[in-house]
Amino acid sequence: MAMKALDIYKLLPKTNCKKCGFPTCLAFAMKLASGKVDVDLCPDLDEQTRELLGGATRPPIRLVAIGAGERSFTVGEEFVLYRHERTFYHQPGLMMQVADTWPEERIEGVVARVRDETFHRVGEDLSVDGIAFRWESGDADRFGGVVGTVEACASVPEVIIADDPEAQAAALAHCGNFQPLIHAACADTAEAMCDLARKYGCALAVRAGDLEELKRLVGLCRDRGVENLMLDPAPATLRDFLARSVEIRRRAVERTDPDLGYPVVFDTVPLGLPDAATALGILKYAGVIIIDELGPASTMAALTLRQNIYTDPQKPIQVTPGLYPVNAPTGSAPVLMTVNFSLTYFTLLGYLEAAGIPCYLFIVDTEGMSVLTAVAGGKLTETLVADAIKTTELENRVDHRVLIIPGYAAPLSGKIEEETGWEVRVGPGDAAEIGEYLETGWEA
After folding, report:
1. How far, in Å, CA of 261 to CA of 258, rounded?
2. DSSP H/E element including 116
3. The CATH homologous superfamily of the domain defined by 64-309
4. C-alpha R_g of the chain
5. Residue 276, SS3?
6. Cβ contact 111:294 at 8 Å
7. Per-residue pLDDT reduced to its tens digit, 189-198
8. Sequence-distant (≥ 6) Cβ neighbours of residue 134 within 8 angstroms
9. What are the tens digits of pLDDT across the range 133-173?
10. CA 267 – CA 162 distance, rounded (Å)
11. Contact predicate 362/337, CB 8 Å
């Protein structure tokens, strides 16, 4: 089990020497308990205590890197079963498959999508992370040729899916230096796959439907010098994956089974139900998810779900407060006030851009809270609005003194007028109605 801060503190020197960079030993213990620092920062621990605290405070799931270059990603280093307990840190990599039996045009289409397709949502560019090559032809040379052809036109992370070491070797001859994930080592191929992983410095997935067999394979790989491992629980159904992935995660975060402290890889393709399987992998702890050739709508849905799940629930996504021109406004354009909760901003911005009406978005700092929450929690006040008007020099940007506030902020309208001297008008509660409101109800 993970140690609590006070339990860690009891094992520290309690000298408050500040050699670790923190003012007190208790402060250092609290950082250790949260996994944000390494025990080695304290130079005064004996080796036995250092080993004990290291095993109890380091991330229970190993960090594993996939790929090389700017699109590489890392998975693992998670601490909790439930997102609300802390947060999830490293989102899973979505790897769209191609098979070496596919026609060249189909392979090229998938590669182009993975390389170029991007969805923009709430200030972030979302995309599939890489390509999974699946060996179906039974011909190692053909498999290597497909990998080589794709390598020539796309620099993205890769998974090499082949149960035969010879086919793996043919593929790695083209891409091994770019650190793909080798998938997968089984009971009868583990030693040969380890040799390839060690030769190219790649992460290696081990595959078994039994957790005890997974642990045995992990031990075998470590003994052969391969530390960057991932676990494939070989599910035959979605239910199998759910049960095994949750059990792996539980044992890892509770530190009852360190041999399972590795990220999970989920090959959804053999199971069918691609949308459901992809969503399940995102929700239930997969580190790498091999997906079928999803359409743009399904891909965007999966990326949106991943973005939502891997956003810190204790830290709302925020935009920078300020004055934002929309549709090239002039001095007579309306000014619409709202909060800096990212989803509110981007939703409203989308409707305003679609309406085509020149205006200013006046964003005040409510620490990322929505309008309703900020009003109820006292974060949106007349003083805040008045200070923001001065900070943004709003008076110098428009010819009028009219401020449109969100419908949910209506209780503050009178107070804002008294504090700012601006005329306050209450806009609609639903952002979807803002275009019609401005067309019919706006006049300075």
Report:
1. 5
2. helix 104-116
3. Dihydropteroate synthase-like (3.20.20.20)
4. 27
5. helix
6. no
7. 999 999 999 9
8. 97, 98, 99, 100, 161, 162, 269
9. 999 999 999 999 999 999 988 899 999 999 999 999 999 99
10. 12
11. yes
Render pLDDT for 168-205 as a digit per residue (tens, 0 to 9): 999 999 998 999 999 999 999 999 999 999 999 999 99
Q: What is the pLDDT of residue 441?
A: 66
pLDDT at 54 over 80: no
Is the CB of residue 98 less than 8 Å from the CB of residue 154? Answer: no
Residue 425 is encoded by which pair of tokens?
């008008």
Dihedral, 218, 219, 225, 229 alpha carbons, nearest 10? 20
> What is the second-level CATH architecture of the domain 5-57?
Orthogonal Bundle (1.10)
Lowest pLDDT segment from 56-70, 79-93, 353-367, 387-401: 56-70
Where exactly are the structural domains of the chain?
Answer: 5-57, 64-309, 322-441
Q: Write down the residue that tokens 């060249």 correspond to.
A: 104
Within 10 angstroms of residue 375's Cβ, the number of other Cβ atoms is: 20
Helix residue ranges per DSSP H, 310-381: 342-355, 371-376
Tokens of 375: 């009003």
Q: How far apart are CA 335 and CA 347, in angstroms?
A: 17
pLDDT, position 56: 64
Check residue 343 and give its pLDDT: 86
2 has pLDDT over 70: no
Q: Enter the DSSP assignment of 293.
A: -
Question: Strand 181-185 vs strand 158-161: parallel, antiparallel, or unpaired?
Answer: parallel
The amino acid that residue 297 corresponds to is A
Mean pLDDT computed over 417-442: 89
Tell me the CA distances in angstroms from 379 to 37, 86, 129, one per residue in order. Answer: 33, 24, 38
Question: What's the CATH number of domain 322-441, 3.40.50.300, 3.40.50.1110, 3.40.50.2000, 3.40.50.11600?
Answer: 3.40.50.11600
**Which DSSP letter does residue 376 get?**
H
d(CA 340, CA 318): 5
User: Tokens at residue 122, please?
Assistant: 């709430």
Q: What are phi and psi of 361, to 5 degrees?
A: -95, 120
